[in-house]
Amino acid sequence: MKYAITISDLKKSYGNLLVLDGISFNVKNSEFCCVLGPSGCGKTTLLKILAKLTSFDGGSVDVQGSNVKEDDGFLSSISVVFQEPRLLRWRTVRENVRLSVELRKGKVEAEDEEIVDSCLRMVGLQAYSNAYPHELSGGMKQRVALARALAVKPKILLMDEPLTGLDVRTRKELQEEILKVWSEENLTILFVTHDPKEAIYLAERIVVFSDKPTRVKDIIDVDIPRPRDLSSSEALALERYIYNCFYA
């Protein structure tokens, strides 16, 4: 199977408001793909459709070879990281990470505990496993959310502007963590952002959305070698091109 996600002529309205107007694109297996578009254009709605958290009106969506409307089998291969960490304040860091396993499997076995430990190490939080959310910084909370998503060993990670609101240094650190996890775990990542620089730094391909009613304006291959220098002539030229797409 070449594609982890296939979206064809996807349409979604809220009442009389047409949001997604015939969206079509594919995400390859093990690809890091960014969806880039202005605020309110339907990027989050797209991720909710992929995670079967909301319905759609027309077109087709296939995830891991399963039709989203007809089959729930693909859900075990997906995890979502939201814009807000959404941690349970009465549970420790470890207990919050373990939660995804509890919800998906109904129980936590010895091998799951080992996976939880591995995920905490992966995001650099093993020393904070017994801390509570109120004792953590914003960046640390988002690391917990990432570890929680990884604890169920997904094949596809959907990320909904997870770094919005973080300071520049923390955002850069988490971008590096996400790239490391993507590489080491051989994940397919669909990452939503409204920041062209972030998309250029992270993605192998960028799907550029228009404003509502939203269509795909362009799909861009990012051929800049890693680690990427956003001040390079290639990155700056791509950034100018993306801004031209936005305002064309």
Biggest sheet strand order reads 6-7-8-3-9-10
Compute the CA-based radius of gyration.
18 Å
Low-confidence runs (pLDDT<50, min 5 residues)? none
The total count of strands amounts to 10
Total discrete domains:
1
Q: What name does the CATH topology carry?
A: Rossmann fold
Strand content: 25-35%
* Succession of helices and strands: EEEHEEEHHHEHEHEEH
Instruction: Give the name of the CATH superfamily.
Output: P-loop containing nucleotide triphosphate hydrolases
Percentage of residues in helical conformation: 25-40%
Structural class estimated from helices and strands: alpha/beta
In CATH, what is the class?
Answer: Alpha Beta
- In CATH terms, what is the architecture? 3-Layer(aba) Sandwich
Looking at the structure, what is the overall shape?
globular
Q: If helices are DSSP runs of H or I spanning 4 or more residues, what is the number of helices?
A: 7
Q: What summary fits the major beta sheet?
A: 6 strands, mixed
Mean of residue pLDDT?
92
- End-to-end Cα distance: 36 Å
